[in-house]
Amino acid sequence: MGGKNKQRTKGNVRPSSSGKAAELLAKDKGTVPGFVGFGANQNELGYVPAVQGLEEVDSLVDADFRMVLRKMSKRDATTKLKAVQEFGTMCKVKHPETIKGALPYWSRIYCKISMDHDRRVREAVQQAFEPLILQVKRNLAPYLKSIMGHWLIAQCDTYNPAASAANVAFQVAFPLNKQSEAVAFCKEEILNILYDYIMKETPETLSDPQCVPEEEREGKYLRVVTSSLLALKKLLDLLPEKETAALKDRLMELVSQSKFWKYSKHKTPQIRSAFFELIIAFCLYLPELMKFEAARVCPAVLLNIDDMDPIVCPSVWAAALYVLTCIEDCWAHVNAKKGVLPKLWAVLQEGGRGLATFIYPSLLPFISRLPEEIIGSKIEFFTMFFSTFSKGLLSERALMSCTESSAIVSAFMECLRFTLHQNLGKAEDQQKLHKMLVNEQLLPLLYSAWKYPKLQASTFSQLADTLASWERRTDNPDTEEWADAYKRLLPDFWVGLSQACMSRVGNPEADKNSLEGVSFLLRCLRNLDSATKQSVKKKGKIRFIDEEETENHDSNATNHLEELTFITKNALASENLGDTSRHFQDNHPARTVPLEGLVCELAKLSMTFINEQNSEMHLTFLSTLVSSFPSRKLFSILVENDNSGNAESFLEKNNEVKKIASNPAVQFLIQKLLIWVQESRTDLSFLVDMLYSVFHCCCNNERRIILNQISEMEQGWLILSHIIQKACVDPVKYTAISDWLKGEVLGEKLVLLTDKLCTTGITSSWPKDVHSHSWVLLSLALSKHINNEFLIDEVYIERIIERLHKALSKDLSKDPSKTGALEPSLSFICDLASNFFRSIKGCLQMLSAEDLLYTIFQLCAQSQEKTHLTGEVQCYEINL
Q: What metabolic or biological pathway is this protein involved in (predicted)?
């Protein structure tokens, strides 16, 4: 009894009592009975040899291998999983000759266990296969025909990790140039296995009904059928053309059976998807087979284009396109008007039901294959086609997803361009079709985009691409007839677009979003890149707080400056910046002229609202127009019939200004822009953008005169701070005023400003927000470093630092107790110094900078009882 409690010998190499019986039987009879792996017959796949006499064990199968092979025959999934994993481990460490002994039995077990119900087991089997292949190499060849069919099925497993592992093993076994040869060697055996699984097997034949639950049997059957259909597609993909032809008769037998075509309506989406994938392969490699079965394949595919299961949808639409290409008379086998088109209208009207990215790219090739007899009346057909398109675009799902709506808009434009191009004649019905497409389909799409801002980026950029396509065709000498047709089409479009924009801007009930939509459209039409430009996403990273502060400051000082190194040396280098924007000049004349005319009309309309109703949103809209389309013609229109004298003082102060007043841009500045600036608006940003548009139409000397005169105005420092802030983040704006920034006038004024601020600040206490824009301007001058240069001339930087140092050291060193009363001004000075020292490398080489830092250090070294500074300011100084 006690013997049963002893630890079993590892590997079971010590025979049990049954093993002794088998050994005695072998000695007596001279034969060894087989034991049941999956069956007692050696011809069955699961056969594993029994233990023979101890002297004969090594000649058959290694004892360790024999043990794990026996475990693989168990029903328990965990036991099988551990056995397969152990088998893979042994294949890595055992001698290749030892592994070869197990090959006959592994190849039999593989075919069964690779289709196990437990996905973990299937994955482990493929993972164990790879080290075995690496060890046995060419010795696997005799067993290829028996395993290749199941190997291909495993590569198409519905469980991706298992399929991936099988593919890896296949790649290890056969280089890419040898794979087709290996599959061709086993093609008949593979096809026999796949045929049986697709056409003959049932849930009951694949699994034992007495041992396996019904749900498990059904699941395995569905998976095996799906994998077999995909494996057959993979077989056709891998086989050379000659080898594929050799299987034609056998495949003809497959497609001639009704059961095969019923898979197109199977309740399981995976099977339907695999079926349509196989149809694609048939169309590619055996088109004659599909033509022979056209009466079955056409309805099976074309009548299922409304299958909205996300698994099936991509496959069925791809199959539809292949069938339309492969079978010339495919429409003769389906009722298009009653069967196919109603399904298409339903899909389009619902916006693809969340599958627009799969469906809509297929629409252009789909309608291009529609014959005239199916289309019938083109106006009726395409009215229905594009109307359902538009309804689908406005469906809830499409509006919620930018990806979905972009796919719909892109397909809409593609189909519209194709339809127009296919009907470019002068016939009356073709002219009616043109007008319908532009006025009833394209322009309403713009109204929808204006109503729903999420649609604007994709719609406007696609429209710009469409216009570019039409404009290129007007210059094609090889197709004169087409060129004439597009020359007639473009003016009609611009008339309709102008009416739409004018009515939108002139609508008394127009809101801010309406005007922004129009301005966005015009910018996209001006520059093809404006709608599609992607912002660069900054990489996230973990950092300490002190590092974050430093990096934030550095980014404020230098992030945008890196852009300036990429600006071309010729950008804005000429004396005059030009009459129109550089991008606008690059456009086709067929676009430049009507677009410029539309902008001028919209600007005049906006001026009417500004003058009569003092409309702030129309002023913002006008700012966008002027910023995007700066030209002397536009400024001339804005100042015509306007002799405003409200800005006469600007003219009288400087004779130089009078000399440049003939420039329409300068007239607009004097008569309009400066008046709007002086109206104490809270937001000057859009007005400063307009000022830069004025600069765009001025030469260097004119810009210098204007900026000098602005600095003399009552609100001069406030305006200049906005001008310089924009120049620091925009390379084009910086180049426009860089000469003036380095000039004597600004430098001297900043030095005087420093004296003024330090004098009033150090001698008295005043509210923190007084002259705050002046402190901001000084901070910009000290902290910005562009193209390795100071924003202003370095001489003025030193003088400003000297003024700050003198202001701190003059009175505070005599009476430290007064320091607390001067806390606001000290905060500003410390802030200026902090920005300077942190952003400018090598700044301590300036003697004045070193003195300033030393003075601040002395102030920090004094006790809080003497200086009466708050803890917050002291901490700030210490950080500095």
A: Protein modification; protein ubiquitination
Share of the chain above pLDDT 70, in %: 74
In angstroms, the CA 795 to CA 801 distance is 10
3-state SS, residue 268? coil
If residue 271 lies in a helix (H) or strand (E), which one and from where to where?
A: helix 269-285
pLDDT at 8: 52
Closest CA to 582 of 668, 464, 734, 696: 696
Residues 6+ apart with CB under 8 A from 531: 457, 460, 461, 464, 520, 523, 524
Q: Of the candidates 323, 177, 196, 303, which has an alpha carbon nearest to the alpha carbon of residue 250? A: 196
Cα distance between residue 34 and residue 48, in whole Å: 8
DSSP letter for 841, please.
T
- Distance CA(733)–CA(726), nearest Å, equals 7
- For residues 788 and 803, the model is more confident at 803
- Min mean pLDDT across 22-36, 183-197, 526-540, 670-684 is at 22-36
For residue range 711-749, list pLDDT tens digits in order. Answer: 888 777 888 888 988 988 888 898 899 899 888 988 888
pLDDT band at 464 (very low <50, low <70, confident <90, very high): very high
Neighbour-count burial of 602, counting CB atoms closer than 10 A to its CB (0-12 exposed, 13-18 middle, 19+ buried): buried
Backbone angles phi, psi at 815, to 5 degrees: -135, 85
pTM score, two decimals? 0.79
What's the start-to-end Cα distance of the chain, in Å?
86
- The CA radius of gyration of the chain, in Å to the nearest whole number, is 41
Q: Which of 345-349, 475-479, 589-593 has the lowest mean pLDDT?
A: 475-479
Q: Decide if pLDDT at 708 tops 60.
A: yes
Among 147-151, 758-762, 825-829, the range with the most confident prediction by mean pLDDT is 147-151
Strand, helix or coil at 790? strand
DSSP 402-433: HHHHHHHHHHHHHHHHHHHHHT-S-SHHHHHH
Can you read off the two tokens belonging to residue 578?
């030009």
Q: What is the reported pLDDT for 151?
A: 96
The SS3 call for residue 805 is helix
CA pair distance 112, 538, nearest whole angstrom: 52
Confidence of residue 568 (pLDDT cuts 50, 70, 90): very low
Residues forming beta bridges with residue 48, ordered by sequence position:
35
Average pLDDT over the chain, rounded to an integer = 81
Residues 845 and 851: their CA atoms lie apart, in Å, by: 11
| The three-state (H, E, C) secondary structure of 339-378, written as one string | HHHHHHHHHHHCHHHHCHHHHHHHHHHHHHCCCHHHHCCH
Q: Nearest Cα to 198, choosing from 152, 146, 148, 263?
A: 263
H or E element: which one contains 785?
Answer: strand 785-786
Name residue 719's amino acid.
Answer: I
Output phi, psi for 476, to 5 deg.
Answer: -85, 105
Q: How far apart are CA 27 and CA 72, in angstroms?
A: 29
Determine the Cα–Cα distance for residues 477 and 133; give it in Å rounded to an integer: 63
- Domain residue spans of the chain: 18-148, 423-532+576-640, 642-741, 744-784+791-880
Residue 68 token pair: 């794990």
* 182-186 long-range Cβ contacts below 8 angstroms, 24+ apart: 182/144, 182/148, 183/148, 183/152, 183/235, 183/238, 183/239, 184/239, 184/240, 184/243, 185/144, 185/145, 186/144, 186/145, 186/148, 186/149
Count Cβ atoms below 10 Å from residue 512 Cβ, excluding itself. Answer: 12
Nearest to 370 by CA among 311, 315, 321: 321
- When pLDDT is averaged across residues 274-297 and rounded to a whole number, the result is 97
The letter for the amino acid at 38 is F
* Lowest model confidence (mean pLDDT) among 104-118, 408-422, 562-576, 632-646: 562-576
Q: Which residues contact 800 (CB under 8 A, 6 or more apart)?
A: 750, 751, 754, 778, 781, 782
- Which pLDDT value is given to residue 20? 47
Nearest by Cα to 632 from 576, 577, 579, 690: 579
3-state SS assignment for residue 683 = coil
